[in-house]
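Reading is simple: each integer encodes one residue's backbone shape. An example follows:

___
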Amino acid sequence: MSDSVPSLYGGPAGTRVRTRHLQLAKERGEKWAMLTSYDQYTAQIFDEAGIPVLLVGDSAANNVFGYESTLPVTVEEMLPLVRAVVGATKRALIVGDLPFGTYEEGPVQALRTAVRFMKEARCHAVKLEGHRPEQIAAITGAGIPVMAHLGFTPQSEHQLGGYRVQGRGEDAAATVLQQAREAVEAGAFSVVLEMVPGDVAKQVTAELPVPTIGIGAGPDTDAQVLVWQDMAGLRPASAGPTPRFVKKYADLHTVLSEAATAYAAEVREGTFPTATHTF
């Protein structure tokens, strides 16, 4: 892909999307989508569908490992997932999410973790949560692109008092804007805004020179991100209410449930396997 390519969704096959292409998209006013991915098959599907950025999120804690929150997931658990997604894609820019406890101590710890993600998992950028300008500066200073994450930050859910909208009120909105500015000044190539009022996200997007990525932040950010299991309707009802900002584009839970039920029935009845499936 070159700077002359008119769209993030129309570049040559096999040519990676780069952070500069996201910047060019913002300058053109072109919106784009980001999805999470944690395995080779979804990564390949999303890549072929033209999703330009895939996030191997610490949301793997909830959606792969079955933890109650994102807090327990480790670097050792994340790295194989990132490698799988990178290896299965040809075009998408792959962002690895730094787990809780792997960057908060300061710039040195943050850089060491980011280097592991780049060397061992071969991703193209990393993401970290919260107001961390010193960590961002250290990582970008080493040549590693950083995606910032502000507003509601799941790794800080206990400090924030649960899943609550952030940035409501004049002072809180000003804080989000200032933190976003400082993230960009430190070198972030984009900023995720999670559960931020739409008018605040609109203002941040208008004032920042880099792309903003919304999740529960309204329609005026430069891009949107969803957890793929939410987007595709894989979450069971027992997992609790679907977040307000999620739109389900399929019902994979029902599809897989019906397929598994049919398979089990055919095995019980002796109608599978048949001669067709036998050597």
